[in-house]
Each structure stands twice: as C-alpha cells, then as structure tokens.
Here is the input.
Amino acid sequence: MSRVLVAGVDTSTQSTKVRVTDAATGEMVRFGQAKHPDGTSVNPEAWWQAFQEAAEQAGGLDDVAALAVGGQQHGMVLLDDHGRVIRDALLWNDTRSATNADVLIARLGEAEKAADGSEDDLSDDPTMRGRQRWVKAVGSSLVASLTITKVAWVAANEPENAERIAAICLPHDWLSWRIAGHGPMGEDATAEELKANLDALFTDRSDASGTAYFDATANEYRRDLLAMALGRSEEETADIVLPRVLGPTETGDVADPAIAGKDVEGGCPIGPGGGDNAMASLGLSMGVGDVSISLGTSGVAAAISPIPAYDMTASVTGFADCTGHWLPLACTINGSRISDAGRAALGVDYDELAELAAASEPGAGGITLVPYFDGERTPNRPDATAALYGMTLANTKRENIARAFVEGLLCSQRDCLELVKGLGVDVKRILLIGGGAKSLAIRTLAPCILG
Here is the structure.
C-alpha cells in the first residue's frame, strides 16, 4: 500500500519552506526552501515565486493528498476587483502606521465611560480607555504591527489605492488562494467570475484575530472598525471582501491540479492553515501551562488559554489559536536578528559568538544592550533605536559585547514572558523554538534568564 503524503507550507518573513511528510509516521520525505526579498514592504508575487521554487526543490506536489499554509501574521494584502494586488504588502514589521494606530486608539477613547456602569473597569485616561476598548472589541490593543493600522495608513496616505480595495487578506490567505488556482483575472472576466474569484478567499481564526477587525470570541468581523480605519461608512465598505473564517476541521478549497494533487484521486484539499505562532503551538502540541519562546525574525512568548485572554493593561495581545482556544502572546519586532547584529559587529559566526559570550560573566561586565534595532512593539516604541550602555575602557572587550547581545535578546523575551504570566498563566514548561534556538549561546543562557 502506498503511503499518504501531505505538505506543510511556511510563508515566513524571510522565506517560503515546503515540507512533504508521510502522514502516518510524520517522517519528512522531501523539503524545499526559497528566499523572500528583504524589506518591510514586499510584492506578494515574490511569495508566489518563492513557493513555486520551494515546491520544485521539494520534488513537486503531484503526489500530495492534502496541504495547508502557515505564515507571517498581520501583513496587509490589498486586491482590486480583478484580484490584482494594488500595492506592495505592508508586513507586520513595517512601523509606518504607528501614528495611525494612535489615531484609532484616540477615536475609541473619545467617549466618556458608559453611565450604566458597564465600563467601570475602564481607565479615566482617554488614551488608555481607547486601548482598553480595542482589547474588549478584538482582544488586542493597537500597535503598528496590526493589519487595521496599515489599512488606515493607506486610506490616509494613498487614497487612490484605498478607493480600489475590493478585498483585504493576509499572506497565508493569499498564498492558499493562489494554490487553489485563483488570482488576477483579465478584463474580459464577467461580474460573476470576478465575484467568485474573490469570494474564494479563506482564512482561519488565528490569523484573522491578528487583523484587529475580527472578534475571535464572537467569530465575526468588526466591519464597523474596518470602516472607521478607511474613513468611510459601513455601507460604503460593505462590499469589501474579507476571507471566510474556517473552523479547525474544515477545508477551504482544492488545489489547482497543476500545482498539487494531480496524481491523487479527488485532488489535494487545502486546510485552513493559520498564523505562524498558532501553527507553532499546534506543532508543539502545547497545552495549558506551556509557554513557547519563539526566536525568529520576531521574538514571541505565547501561551494557551481555554478562555479569551483580555489584558486590560493593553500589553498582551489576545489572539486566537487554530484549535478553538486562545493564544495570548507578547511579541517583539526584534528577535534572532539581535544576535545576527552581534555577529556582524564582531565579525564572527554563531559558534564564535557563543564562545565569546561563554567567556564573559553574567551581566556582561556591566555592558547592557537595549535591543530595539527596528523600533519595538513590546514595549511599544516604534521609533526607538538600539544602544549599548555601560561601556568603559576596562569592560569593553569582545567577550562582554558578545554576551550583552545574547543577554539583550533573552532579557527582551523575559519581559514578554512576564507580561504573559501577568494574565495568570501558570507556567509549567517553556519551549524554546525558532531559528534563534539553534544558537548554542542562546540555549546556554536561556535557562538562567528565562527561569
């Protein structure tokens, strides 16, 4: 009997990976990977090209019986009525919409607290009250990473592009849609064909919950908030297509046979997939009491909660996971690239960075790295920069600088961990994952710093 093969597709910030796996044993059968362009504003067609290259490296997907896509969250993909990409996607780590986030927070904070006592738990400060109302509405307060702020930026700065919006989706939604054979249509397409093309978009609740216009508790889009971001009425934005939100056991479509499943009877169904952190928690079989520390392009401390996690301090995002639970997490923009910056500054490789850091003492001889190279999300400092402090003639040594970079990365994640614990999470196990976890220096110092 021939074995059943399935494929997982990871469209991350830096690359697309395709892994073909034996469904019965979990054994990896084939693998491919292709890089994405650098930058925080990227043409989605680059993801499609990377997927095709990675799939080819993986030996093709003709014999794959099912697949799903996981990917970077929050990236804003805007489509016109013909399914064409309107402008480059603004990725999660693009912070140009920080001011727009502040404006949207202020909009919800304008009104005084309800007189009926239903908002007695809200702050008297209008800014904090606005953040808390966003938390109650969609589970998270706004920072520049979240999709709705990027939509607001386009509306404010590129009104001609905002007028063309017929659909809004996320990276994993868009790639799943393309794998199913959908995409840009010609001028000769009928109105029915154009509508069916966009209506085929689908997503899952984990990725939808990162848009800040989806309520994962009610499992419905907040079109009123999206309309506010666009500066238009709900009636004017009612025709904008938002992807169908699938349940964890549903399938969204069947792959185009030219792309996957050509040799499989019935074709290759496409699962709902999900946001990268939710997919990681699923792959780790995380349960209540587990916390993952993911060190990729970003740094993320995430836990599983069986109930909605509303952080009224507005520090932890109350995202959904991909099983029906919730995934409260604190995320930094700066992740493993902190150690990459340390390697570049010292002119060493990963092993040499680990050796140098190990030769220093805890505290790096008094040198401290503030690791906000690309601004920061946790804490919310979009315009911040990194800095080394405490340098003297006596302690300015390569070993201390190396350790300061490693400690800076891990202390940043400890901050995130403490925020998640502040929601009442009883941490029984910490799982260190992501590309940064391959570093010996990270693995050596993590138990001391994370606890």
User: Anything to note?
Assistant: The radius of gyration is 22 Å. The longest strand covers residues 15-22. The mean pLDDT is 96. Residues 98-138 form one domain.
